[in-house]
Design goal:
The protein is of the alpha/beta class and 700 residues long. The protein contains 25 helices and 18 strands. The structure holds nicotinamide-adenine-dinucleotide (NAD).
Length: 700
């Protein structure tokens, strides 16, 4: 299943005409973006690039050498110019006089801000000395899978020599920092013929005196490693061959949908996590292979990999040749507990006196033979990216185990990176999570006025949202618009008719496979109808009952099942109507169905309380703007009853309200958000009227 050799080859995308008018800094950005946009060159957020450029000193006006180097954080594929830090080279060289030896190397990071050129606010990264001291103008550092496969082989030094002769050097594992910068300098200075170096268990450094040369050297070295690996492994089954069969795609996804809510519940006791399911061929090959049991426990090697994936994955006890999903689900609590205990023991074995406190001990990567890989993190993008990183680790293990013996990083080294005080400082600088971070909401009628305003409100608070609507195309369009604002990870759409049981069940299975489950149901899908009782046909009556009463029952019943499988509570919000409390002429079917919703919510509040599932109701009234209800027959009927048009109606309803204010979809969304979030953690069975004041709807 490995990629074919031709497909694996990296092509130079350098455009001379485009680069001709660029400054050295522009060329550095151009090169960085080209390198980082191909995940075969480096993983997301991995690697950094630099150029040493002559610049005019803002004070003296004299030319001085400045290091432009990717700053702390960010990704070379998508970075902009402000992602680079700039430092005086003469000051960086002067730092050598401050160096007190390897045990004090971390303090050198504190000196870097003193070397800043031109008041650049971008913090310099820990890797800055690795770029500064290589005596060449341009330096690339990337984490290509093909290179790390060599770097993570037990005999990586010999392999480097065999593949690259004297053109690429080799350095033993050392965590990135000042000392490694000095090692690289020594290697490059003593071996002027070298075009780069492989760092054991880590990645590649390449250098040149010209930006294009540096870029092409990076590609050439990666291509050479990839070609060598392909030749050496040709004809050999990856990972020692197949041990367990791969299940068909629908079955894999259905199993993931059953497992993910349970796992999510087990690992979200402190903070809610979001899941990601990945069953790409590389994953399936690994989880079904002979070597799964031996390679998985060894852990990942490249620091970037294990910072994202934790040192090792959890292999779920599931046999695709004799599937027993109930037994697997029953085994998950112990598996999660054992993993936590192992992680805590690793922390205790490796910690130093000044180590930061034990972090979340739960597994990030869950491997399921025959099914795929499930990853969890505090947000969807991180869960997805953690999965991508584990795919990098799989690629590395495939390469290394195909040509040699794969080795993970020694435990203490891994710990020293994971609990590095400088890494901890980065975590401390992270912004406070938003109020719905890690939460997943399913909004029915999500393509409509109130539904889409609600989705937007929740997305702003960091939730993931699934827009479920009978009009699948409309939901897709609304979701696409939201993805542009909030990013493609956090919003999904699904075609679902709330009156069709199988649709509802499928939508929740989809939510489970997409995000790991749900925490919030906003049951909002609806219609409006108007007719005197004598003219109310059975069909009209049933339509109201079907959508507004039975539909609300079905979506909340399935939500309860999922919420109980997770076991971490949840919040259900029904969007009913003022008309569920206040009788209204010529709308008996609608009013009665809305009243049923409200009473259903109260019954469910009672049933859900012991599981921490809250159920509350929002009652809107006369929300004309954005609502599709107010554009069809209902609008015509109401407008003709009151002998006016849409604007006239809105004004009429405004005047009718006690507060003399129009009610907007955003107002309803705010109330729904309040009831969905922990702001209302101690409220259940409640009704919130958002109608600008209507005495008939006062609850009593
Ligand atoms: P809207 O028409 O803009 O949105 C309703 C959405 O529900 C639509 O996208 C529609 O496609 C969807 N839908 C309809 N039937 C469905 C079904 N069977 N399965 C799945 N989706 C279905 O209307 P809105 O104003 O946003 O209304 C949302 C909710 O608010 C409704 O329950 C409505 O009764 C209630 N409400 C609205 C008002 C108001 O003045 N707008 C007042 C009181 C109550």
């Amino acid at each position: 299943m490995a990629k074919t050799p031709a497909a694996n080859r990296l092509e130079s995308l350098w455009n001379d005409a485009k680069a001709a008018s660029m400054s050295e800094a522009d060329k550095l950005l151009y090169r960085s973006n080209l390198l980082g946009s191909d995940k075969r060159v480096t993983n997301y957020g991995g690697g950094n690039t630099s150029a040493k450029v002559m610049e005019q000193d803002p004070l003296s006006g004299e030319l001085t050498e400045v290091l432009w180097v990717k700053g702390s954080g960010g990704d070379i594929g998508s970075m902009k110019m402000e992602g680079f830090s700039t430092l005086y080279m003469d000051k960086l060289r002067a730092l050598k006089g401050k160096y007190r030896g390897v045990e004090f190397e971390d303090e050198m990071v504190g000196y870097l801000p003193h070397c800043t050129f031109n008041l650049n606010p971008r913090a310099a990264s820990i890797d800055t000395p690795l770029h500064a001291y290589v005596p060449r103008k341009h330096v690339d550092h990337v984490h290509s899978d093909a290179i790390i496969a060599i770097a993570a082989s037990v005999n990586s030094r010999d392999l480097t020599k065999e593949i690259f002769g004297n053109e690429i050097g080799w350095l033993p594992w050392r965590k990135p920092g000042y000392e490694l910068g000095l090692w690289l300098e020594k290697l490059a200075t003593e071996n002027p013929q070298m075009r780069g170096a492989i760092l054991e268990s880590h990645g590649l450094f390449t250098w040149a005196d010209d930006a294009k040369d540096c870029y092409q050297t990076t590609l050439e070295i990666i291509n050479k490693a990839a070609a060598w690996l392909e030749t050496k492994t040709a004809g050999k089954p990856a990972f020692g061959g197949v041990r367990k069969p791969t299940l068909p795609p629908e079955e894999r996804r259905a199993i993931a949908a059953r497992l993910m809510p349970v796992i999510r519940g087990l690992i979200s006791k402190d903070r809610h996590k979001v899941g990601h399911f990945d069953d790409q061929p590389a994953v399936l090959e690994f989880v079904g292979s002979q070597m799964l049991e031996t390679l998985a426990p060894l852990g990942t090697s490249c620091p970037d990999h294990f910072l994202r994936t934790k040192i090792r994955p959890l292999v779920v006890d599931f046999d695709p040749s004799k599937p027993d999903l109930a037994a697997t689900i029953a085994s998950l609590p112990k598996a999660a507990e054992d993993y936590r205990a192992d992680y805590a023991a690793y922390y205790d074995r490796c910690k130093h006196d000044n180590s930061p406190a034990l972090r979340d001990p739960n597994a990030v990567v869950w491997l399921v033979p025959g099914v795929g890989m499930i990853t969890f993190a505090l947000d969807k993008a991180t869960a997805r990216i953690s999965g991508e990183f584990y795919v990098n680790a799989i690629n590395v293990m495939r390469g290394a185990s195909g040509v040699s013996t794969y080795q993970g990083l020694p435990e203490q080294e891994a710990f020293d990176i994971e609990y590095w005080l400088l890494e901890e400082a980065k975590l401390q600088r992270m912004p406070k999570p938003k109020s719905l971070a890690g939460r997943v909401a399913l909004v029915t009628g999500g393509a409509g006025g109130i539904g889409s305003a609600t989705a937007e409100r929740m997305l702003k608070e960091g939730a993931c949202v699934i827009l479920a609507d009978i009009d699948g195309k409309a939901a897709e369009d609304v979701a696409a618009g939201m993805a542009k604002v909030f990013g493609p990870d956090v919003v999904r759409s699904v075609a679902m008719n709330v009156t069709i049981e199988s649709d509802v069940i499928a939508a929740y299975a989809n939510a489970a496979a997409e995000y790991g489950g749900i925490d919030i149901l906003v049951s909002n899908a609806g219609i409006a109808s108007s007719a005197p009782i004598e003219d109310t046909t059975l069909a009209l009556w049933n339509r109201n009952m079907d959508i507004l009463s039975t539909g609300y029952f079905l979506v909340s019943r399935e939500a309860f099942k999922l919420l109980r499988a997770q076991g971490i509570g949840g919040s259900v919000v029904f969007v009913a109507s003022k008309n569920g409390l206040a009788a209204s002429p010529n709308a008996s079917a609608y009013c009665t169905a809305k009243a049923a919703e409200i009473h259903l919510a109260r019954c469910l509040a009672l049933e859900g309380a012991e599981a921490g599932i809250r159920v509350n109701v929002v009652n809107p009234d006369a929300v004309l703007r954005g609502s599709k209800i107010w554009s069809g027959e209902w609008l015509d009927q109401r407008a003709s009853t009151y002998k006016t048009d849409k604007e006239g109606l809105e004004e009429m309803y405004r005047q009718r309200s006690m507060l003399k204010r129009s009610v907007l979809p955003e107002d309803i969304a705010e109330g729904i958000y309040f009831l969905a979030s922990d702001l209302s953690a101690k409220s259940t069975g409640n009704i919130l009227n958002i109608d600008a004041g209507n005495v008939q709807a006062f609850t009593r």
